[in-house]
Design a protein that fits this description.
Blueprint lengths: L5 H12 L2 H8 L3 H15 L4 E4 L2 E4 L1 H27 L5 E7 L6 H13 L3 E7 L2 H10 L4 E5 L8 E8 L1 E6 L19 E5 L6 H11 L4 E6 L2 H9 L5 E4 L4 H5 L3 E5 L8 E7 L7 H26 L8
Parallel strand pairs: 3-4, 3-5, 8-9
Antiparallel strand pairs: 1-2, 5-12, 6-12, 7-10, 7-11
Helix pairs in contact: 1-2, 1-3, 2-3
Length: 316
Amino acid sequence: MFAFSRFLIYFTEVARQGSLRKASEVLHVSASSIDRQILRVEEQLEMPLFERHPSGLRMTAAGEILLNAAKGWQKEFGRVCTQLDDLRGLRHGHVHIATIDAINRGFFSSILQHIRQEYPGISFTLTTMSNIHIANALTAGDADFGIMLNPQSSRELLVKSFADLRLGIVVNSQHPLAELESIRFSHCDSWPFIVPSAPLMLAEPLEALLNTSGITLNEVGRTNNIHMLRSLVRDDVGISIMCWLDIVDEHRRGELKFIPLIDPILKPFTLSLCVAPQRQLSIAASMMLRELETFFAMMQNEQAIAAQEKGSRAIT
């Protein structure tokens, strides 16, 4: 990049490769030229940046400090370039999104496809992480915004939009319970049940329901993988508890039915679109953020419409 000195380009590549020769091959610059640049700066700093060994180069503590600073400079320069594009009125840019695994379904990829059609100059990086790693990525500036489930309140996170996702019993579309509009958990005891186990967040509300209802489930299997849980229910191995987000695609295709649980002990899961409040988003990120806020409203509406679909009766 033009804004960075020859030394910094050489230094970061040598640090990455751990070898003058390998850095020379990548940069198409002689190893002696690279070494001269590094030796000149080491002389100015009056401390070595690398330990030189027959097997290669190893960074010193001073080298580590300089490398971390260089990464920060490069990241900040990337943001400056995006802002300069914004000043030119270009709808271009790259957006970093961090999401939980549950969101990476067909319904979400269709939203991204729509955004790409609206703004073809915007590209994105989508990274799947746990809630805690999403929060860390936002505060560190490694992600523009994150999509989290039940985020913990924090001064370092700002919720821009959210959708409450009901919990329910999920059954195969041909199951006898599929016609119900709602159900209490106590009426699930006679049906083969697939138990979601930790680290799935579904394990906690299931345990609460078991403790308050006093029923004994007809457990036929358990899994800690949401993809397997959906497959087992779709293949009619048993019924299970899930949130609306888990089965949106299958509900649209008519493969699975979602029956809302009406037990008062249950609280909905909250899907949240979060940013770091101190972060100034690029125009590209801001445009994508607005589109995703629309997506959250759509999720809430679709869930409400599904709940209003006609069914024959509800078990209370």
